[in-house]
Design goal:
- This protein is mainly α.
- The protein has a 3-stranded antiparallel beta sheet with strand order 1-2-3. A 3-stranded antiparallel beta sheet has the order 4-5-6.
- Helix 7 packs parallel to helix 8.
- It is built from 18 helices and 6 strands.
- Bound molecules: carboxymethyl coenzyme *A.
- The site of carboxymethyl coenzyme *A (CMC) has 20 residues, from loops.
Length: about 425
């Protein structure tokens, strides 16, 4: 059977292009030879119709609201798995056996401490610095502290760098938080699991015993699973593009963190909570719905809409359940923000504007309420997203580095500026 092709006609010249098929999801037209054959580029701002890479890691069906990590549905992983097991799955492609899991947990745990000089690095920041600014800087700076794992041509160094980032991200995130509130850093305690250790580093103080609440730890672990990967989103594509030049992995992940910070991406959880606080009471919801629909008003309902999901974000469903679990555990019977969120969701889901544009709540809609109830300030929300997404970035970066066909990412453009013209001296300019 011959391989499928697609014919494109440009200036009366027909060009046959190969069509590649995935295991599931849309096929792609391979246009890599199009320029050579026609002298034309394709044009797709925002990559709405462009597959930038081939990948075996994560699959999303945005119309059906399906998210799979290595083939496993997100709800099954969130219900039955734990975050480190999910990390193993994303990195290596299979769920670990008991022995592999124990070994992986051990390897990650042995890397939780950061170089002691990093402490001094932190004190260079203002106390009111945004923790995402600190994370961009500190993760980038890891390449200055761990030179022995920056050679990307060495698989062992790549593995060590990956372990270091997964292990040290909670330590750095907790340090950023502690620094902002003027409390001493709390060192990792390696007999605790990954997420309990993180909670302790954030909320323990040296003067008192700290007992990790297992319900909260499990809930946060689940939140980490939900955020662990999401195929070729903006920050992941940033990591891949940075990595395609051969940059070291710490620098690439720092680039991903910088991209994640934006309110259209990971910064939406912070923005969504601020929006709910601003709305304040359910009676003000219609005013905000009207603002969101007004073409002349830049306001958008934060935590609503998604480039890929044109259905309920499957992560948002699990997130909503987790929110209720956390509030119950903490004995928060009436949370005014939750009341506003539930009512806002109901109204928006019935509104023609949101129905027609297929705008549904995304993961960020409920995550802020949950994280706030756990005690995290809004400025930390995107940091927690970055912590969890680190493994996805690393898995995608590793897949790219190990792909023999990988080349530097170098998009082209449609130039609409001035054509060639001669230089004019200052005296001659009118
Ligand atoms: N509120 C009001 N209108 C919206 C919203 C919203 N939240 N999102 C999209 N629209 C409208 C938009 O105005 C546009 O209308 P029109 O076609 O009339 O011009 C239409 O829906 C399509 O929007 P778009 O901006 O072309 O869609 P996109 O795929 O480029 O953007 C998005 C996706 C997530 C950036 C956008 O929906 C948005 O800004 N949402 C709010 C921010 C948010 O919650 N982001 C988190 C995304 S999930 C987590 C993550 O990726 O990090």
């Amino acid at each position: 059977m011959s391989s499928p092709t697609s014919t494109v006609t440009v200036d009366n010249k027909s060009v046959e292009l190969p069509v590649k098929e995935g295991t599931i999801g849309p096929s792609v037209i391979d246009i890599s030879k199009l320029y050579g054959q026609t002298g034309m580029f394709t044009y797709d701002p925002g990559f709405t119709s462009t597959a930038a890479t081939e990948s075996k890691i994560t699959y999303i069906d945005g119309d059906a609201g399906i998210l799979l990590y290595r083939g496993y549905p997100i709800d099954q992983l969130a219900e039955h798995g734990d975050f480190l097991e999910t990390c193993y799955l994303l990195l290596y492609g299979e769920l670990p056996t008991a022995a592999q899991k124990a070994d992986f947990d051990y390897r990650v745990t042995r890397h939780t401490m950061v170089h002691d000089q990093m402490h001094r690095f932190f004190t260079g920041f203002r106390r009111d610095a945004h923790p995402m600014a600190i994370m961009v800087a500190c993760v980038g700076a890891l390449s200055a502290f761990y030179h022995d794992s920056t050679d990307i041509s060495d698989p062992h160094q790549r593995m060590i760098a990956s372990m270091r980032m997964i292990a040290k991200m909670p330590t750095l995130a907790a340090m950023a938080y502690k620094y902002s509130i003027g409390q001493p850093f709390v060192y990792p305690q390696n007999d605790l699991d990954y997420t309990s250790n993180f909670l302790r580093m954030c909320f323990a103080v040296p003067a008192e015993e700290y007992k990790v609440n297992p319900v909260l730890s499990r809930a946060l672990d689940r939140i980490f699973i939900l955020h662990a990967d999401h195929e070729q989103n903006a920050s992941t594509s940033t990591v891949r593009l940075a990595g395609s030049s051969g940059a070291n992995p710490f620098a690439c992940i720092a680039a991903g963190i910088a991209c994640l910070w934006g309110p259209a991406h990971g910064g939406a959880n912070e923005a969504a909570l601020k929006m709910l606080e601003e709305i304040g009471t359910p009676d003000r919801i219609p005013e905000y719905i009207a603002k969101a629909k007004d073409k002349n008003d830049p306001f958008r309902l934060m935590g609503f809409g998604h480039r890929v999901y044109k259905n309920y974000d499957p992560r948002a469903r699990i997130m909503q359940k987790t929110t209720h679990e956390v509030l119950n555990e903490l004995g928060i019977k009436d949370d005014p923000l939750l009341d506003v969120a539930i009512e806002l969701e109901q109204i928006a889901l019935k509104d023609d504007y949101f129905v027609e544009k297929k705008l549904y709540p995304n993961i960020d809609f409920y995550s802020g309420i949950t994280l706030k109830a756990m005690g995290f300030p809004t400025s930390m929300f995107t940091v927690l997203f970055a912590l969890a997404r680190t493994v996805g970035w690393i898995a995608q970066w590793s897949e790219m580095i190990e792909d023999p066909s990988q080349r530097i990412g170098r998009p082209r453009q449609l130039y609409t500026g001035e054509t060639e013209r001669d230089y004019v001296t200052v005296a001659q300019r009118g």
